[in-house]
Amino acid sequence: MIVAFSVTPLGVGEDVGEYVADAVRVVRASGLPHRTDAMFTSLEGEWEECMDVVRRAVAAVEARAPRVSLVLKADIRPGVTDGLTSKVETVDRHLSES
């Protein structure tokens, strides 16, 4: 499964990068395949391990912020691995054909 999620601290002002970094540290320490961009972090693994990482990432931000917003989208597709890479490669292949 692939989970794309965003953890946003609320009530801490406009500059939230240091809080988001706390969440990303949790993701990186998980050892699961992941990518972080300007809006979301995508994570790949089994349901239990992905949800545990999301829960701990939220807790890391919640420890320093009075309120936390979580946006989560999941692609639950049993038997598929390396989706983080293969999905992008498929789109790139189609783009190069046109």
From TrEMBL:
SUPFAM superfamilies: MTH1187/YkoF-like (SSF89957). It holds the Pfam family Thiamine_BP. Residues 3-91 form the Thiamine-binding protein domain. PANTHER family: UPF0045 PROTEIN ECM15. Belongs to the UPF0045 family. NCBIfam families: MTH1187 family thiamine-binding protein (TIGR00106). This is MTH1187 family thiamine-binding protein. It comes from Streptomyces axinellae.
